[in-house]
Write the structure tokens for this entry.
Amino acid sequence: MASSSLAILKQNLKKIYNFFLYEIVVGHVLTLKYMFKKKYTIDYPFEKGPVSPRFRGEHALRRYPNGEERCIACKLCEAICPAQAITIEAEERSDGSRRTTKYDIDMLKCIYCGLCQEACPVDAIVESPNFEFATETRQELYYNKEKLLANGDRYEYALQKNIEQDNKYR
């Protein structure tokens, strides 16, 4: 009786061993199959992947070609922002037009929805294609007007190109 149950146990163990051996071979074959295919990874940060023209990244304030800032202080972006991340203060100039004296964005609150960009009638506030703006402190993520204008100057060519490509969807 004991020898018969021992034989059954050995037979079952052999089946289990053969099953797992088969699974290991299948796993190795699958690995070898993908080892010689084209790789889909990139060597970031030395290689960059494509970025969509509709990508919403770091905010920027744009200028007109003559150097004057575009923002007319209509405060539509501040009103439409669901996260209330934008703060604007404005005053009238001597020629009667309004311009901002303070334009702050709290990037910690921002949800990058793009509503500010869509609401702006003069394309002053835009979201640039830059996604690499990590900082060491939280204070660096409070953007003032000077920082936003510097971003706009830095990415103007890319912003203009993206807006031209995106115009057919607006």
